[in-house]
Design a protein that fits this description.
150 residues; mainly alpha; two-stranded antiparallel sheet; 71% helix; 7% strand; globular
Length: 150
């Protein structure tokens, strides 16, 4: 089913065009160095758009990835500056999802965009991972949650 979803995403809906454009935008922002945290996040989002079914965007903090404290602080500052643009992009994406759900044929595209609303809002420090990784993170959170309740 994931493979069929990815094929439908690319060929009738030209998802590869979105993926290439987002990846190239991320590359350009990374080259500028000033917007590198956003650029790296957009490059990961571009990877996600190449195979959106069966993958998800996850924050590095959920994966317990250690980061340089200076880079983390710089990323936070850049994210604050990006926030107004991120809000605008997220609102546009919400309207796009609503419009695409009106027709049955566009539901796969709407699902991809809906899955990535958080990335539109905050692409900084996000990584594209397989769904199995996300399920494992959720399983570990559930185990930790049940350990707190006697």
């Amino acid at each position: 089913m994931k493979t069929l979803g990815n094929i439908l995403w690319h060929f009738p809906f030209f998802g590869f065009v979105s993926a290439i454009l987002v990846y190239l935008l991320g590359l350009v922002l990374t080259v500028t160095v000033v917007a590198a945290p956003i650029g790296l996040g957009l490059m990961e989002y571009g990877k996600f758009l190449f195979v959106p079914f069966g993958h998800a965007m996850v924050s590095k903090s959920e994966l317990n990835v250690r980061q340089n404290p200076v880079w983390k602080a710089y990323s936070a500052i850049v994210m604050i500056l990006y926030l107004p643009l991120g809000l605008i992009l997220a609102v546009i994406a919400v309207f796009q999802v609503a419009a695409q759900f009106v027709t049955i044929i566009n539901i796969p595209v709407a699902l991809v965009i809906a899955k990535s609303l958080g990335t539109y809002l905050n692409p900084v420090n996000k990584i594209c991972v397989r769904i199995a990784v996300v399920e494992e993170i959720e399983r570990r959170k559930a185990i930790a949650e049940t350990a707190h309740h006697p």
